[in-house]
Amino acid sequence: MNWLRLLSSARLNQRSEQGSLPSRSAFEQDYDRIIFSHPFRKLQDKTQVHPLPEQDFVHTRLTHSLEVSSVGRSLGKRAGEVIMQRHPALKDNYSLFDFGAIVAAASLAHDLGNPPFGHAGEDSISDFFREHPQGQAFREKVSEAEWEDLIKFEGNAQGFRILNKDEYGLKLTLATLGAFTKYPCPALFPERDKKKRSQKKFGFFQSELTHFESVAGELQLIRQQGPSWSRHPLAYLVEAADDICYSIIDLEDGCRLGLISFDETVELLSGILRDKLDRNKLKVTTGLNEKLGTLRAMSIGVLIDSCTEIFLAHEAEILDAKFDHALTDLCEFKDALKLISDVSVKKIYRARHVVEIEASGHQILPGLLEEFCKTGEHLMLNRRSRKYDNLLLLLPEEVVAAIGRHPGNTYLMLRQIVDFVSGLTDKHALSLYRKIKGISL
């Protein structure tokens, strides 16, 4: 792989720049398009880990995405500065700010495909097709590869789908789409090697396979075994930004909510800060917010430095597709991050209020899918029913129109329904479920 192709500002099916401004690069336009998009705004009411408490502020998917983007920009700029020196030919068309803008845009979009109710939402959508009689009834109406998509809902693949849906008009650059795709392989992949970080999950559905093939071809990503490709190098920085933020900030939220004591939080972060941690200064600092803010900023700074160093040390291997690890798994603070993760699982992710909202998701999302998948099937087969005619009116016009454009295609109908349900906010999903089940009017 080479950086000149990897930094392509071209857009799919659009070879020339449209409306580009000298003061705003194509990659900065990507960032702006994402932040003003409807799917991004909905992240403000999607659970990160905790349902929103009354007593203090904790992170939503939206604030998490903004923070990951900020860390991603720093990682991109720092790596870009050295890469520009190593590859002088890039200076004719690019700068370190382009590296930062690409990683920032891809990081900003990294959670767009996540459904309501956190990661439990992904499992509940998958379980509907795997275990629910209504979901299982579609098994014989789709191909093997399409069925794998349905029984393994994946937020990363849903995000790639959202970024390429015409209705949102995002039309991002090839570089940003490449950096966004952390798992450049499909759901049905018998040769999958989960020891490789890039094959741990999957990054696109069958409905977007040709889109990704076009992206990979234009960027000259290296084709690997089966239907898989090498990662875009900047995807490693997007992944690192996410890993850094959820490790540190989920711990911060847990401390704010009293799930982990401040003293234990300090001890956990001391494995990252080491001699930079001034315990005496912490004692004279007033207020929990200020103390946590200082610890967070210092910890993130240390991890940015470490991950950038590892990325640059392995640049040649990454370009040759001979590197396939998470940067945080190789950094010198990996043991400290592992300990934070273990404690977070035990004391934060399994806290009662977290388990309660996940349990709600396992009831609400399959309930919505049961009714709306049946509605979509009635529409596709032109069946008349008072119940499903009424439910049809609750679907967005673009969903109804899209199903109508592909008569007889069960898979694409189901994809549209899953788009709708997974795109709901937590509150909207709960409200809609109560209404169609007759619990509230």
From TrEMBL:
Gene3D superfamilies: eoxyguanosinetriphosphate triphosphohydrolase domain-like, Hypothetical protein af1432, putative deoxyguanosinetriphosphate triphosphohydrolase like domain. One of its GO terms (molecular function) is dGTPase activity. SMART domains: HDc. Keywords: Hydrolase. Residues 57-256 form the HD/PDEase domain. Transmembrane segments: none annotated. SUPFAM superfamilies: HD-domain/PDEase-like. Pfam families: HD, HD_assoc. InterPro entries: dGTP_triP_hydro_central_sf, dGTP_triphosphohydrolase_C, dGTPase, dGTPase-like, HD/PDEase_dom, HD_domain, PHydrolase_assoc_dom. GO terms for biological process: dGTP catabolic process. NCBIfam families: dGTP_triPase, PRK01096.1. This is Deoxyguanosinetriphosphate triphosphohydrolase.
